[in-house]
Amino acid sequence: MRFSGFGFQIVAVLCLAAWGGLKLDEYFGLSVPVFLIVLLLSALGGSMYLFIRQVSKDN
């Protein structure tokens, strides 16, 4: 039960990263969604790192 809210946190962070990436790609006029991809992968990597660190801390 302790990590039940973590899924919502990941979804929120990924949504913000996607929105920010799309806005940056639109602002710079990029035809390839570079910022979208970079921000999504960074957000996912950061979220997984924090989750693994938290789970390891509990053991």
Give the arrangement of secondary structure elements.
Blueprint: H1 6-28, H2 34-58
Helix pairs in contact: 1-2
Measured as a percent range, the helix fraction is over 70%
Mean pLDDT: 92
How many domains, as an integer?
A: 1
Tally of alpha and pi helices: 2
The topology string of helices and strands comes to HH
Low-confidence segments, given as residue ranges, are none
- Rg, rounded, reads 14 Å
The outline comes out as elongated
Tally of extended strands?
0
Largest sheet: none
Distance between the termini: 15 Å
The amount of beta strand, in percent, is under 5%
The helix/strand class is mainly alpha
Summarize this structure briefly:
This protein is mainly α and 59 residues long. It has one domain.
Describe the structure.
The protein has 59 residues and is mostly helical. The chain has one domain. 81% of the residues lie in helices and 0% in strands. α1 packs antiparallel against α2. The relative contact order is 0.17. The mean pLDDT is 92.
Salient structural properties:
59 residues, 2 helices
